[in-house]
TrEMBL record:
Protein name according to UniProt: L-histidine N(Alpha)-methyltransferase
Residue span(s) of domain Histidine-specific methyltransferase SAM-dependent: 21-318
A GO biological process held by the record: methylation
GO MF term list: L-histidine N(alpha)-methyltransferase activity
Keywords: Methyltransferase, Transferase
Amino acid sequence: MKTIRSNVHYHNGNEPETDMYSEILHGLRQEKKFISPKYFYDKKGSELFESITMLTEYYPTRTELLILNKFKDEMAHAIGSDTALVEFGSGSSEKVRTLLEAMPELKEYVPIDISKDFLYQSARALSMEYPHLDVHAVSADYTDKFEVPELKSKRKAVFFPGSTIGNFEPEESMKFLKMTANFLRPKGGLLIGVDLKKDHAVLNAAYNDNKGITSQFNINLLNRLNRELLANFDLEKFQHHAFYHAEKGRIEMHLVSLINQTITIGNEKVFFTEGETIHTENSYKFTIQEFQNMARQCGFTPEKVWCDDKNWFSMHYLVV
Ligand code: AVJ
């Protein structure tokens, strides 16, 4: 029998730290109730997000792909050869394919994601399309400490598209950037997608689409809690609310309770007054200067930034 050497390898980067029930209950016990946006992405939530990316009003995904496509050769050149490409939150590894087209000599790709099954399936598919690429799939929460396997390439570049950094609080962004700089040292770069400040009407429309998909995406979170944590939210009694908060430079998403109500979650009760909200997401927007200044404070040197013609979205290449 002939032995076939597979070019996909699986690694455990770290173990999930938090327990969903206690984390969510903790948020709902606060004066201002909140739930982390990471909980949006169950199967249905991931599908709804996919639909959001195709909406006319939701410009970020489409614009980022446009920038990637237009400047992929310059990006590949900035990253350089003999560099391993490490993607944080790789999901289906769809966006990286554009970059891979411009990097035919790339030897190693390291997708990191928290949803293990989906990661392994996507990594295997990709490894079959790129037989000369070593794919090291690492299941980990990349916002925590994690291990990656020993790599052959001289340096690493982290690919972090999607403006996911917008979901982090300013201090979390700083911590994340510092951790990433440490991960890349002694030498390496970060290619990151960052959504930009712009006309408030454009921002507001992107999170209040006509078809109500973003509303469904927000409300699906309650559906998930009902199913996975044995809660009894009445989905009709909460309403999607999203707006741009100019002073804070962020889109806020909330679920507004339409009446006074008590909900049960596991064995616990949570009371809502009419009009009270669960804050479910912040999506920070930056100017190019703001983002570069923050990155500098965390040990990066901005090397290059690419934008679309309207300056709605940016992709930065920063080095350590
Ligand atoms: C995936 C965090 C980039 O903030 O635009 C889309 C999530 N929320 N519509 C964003 C989201 C509502 C999205 N990110």
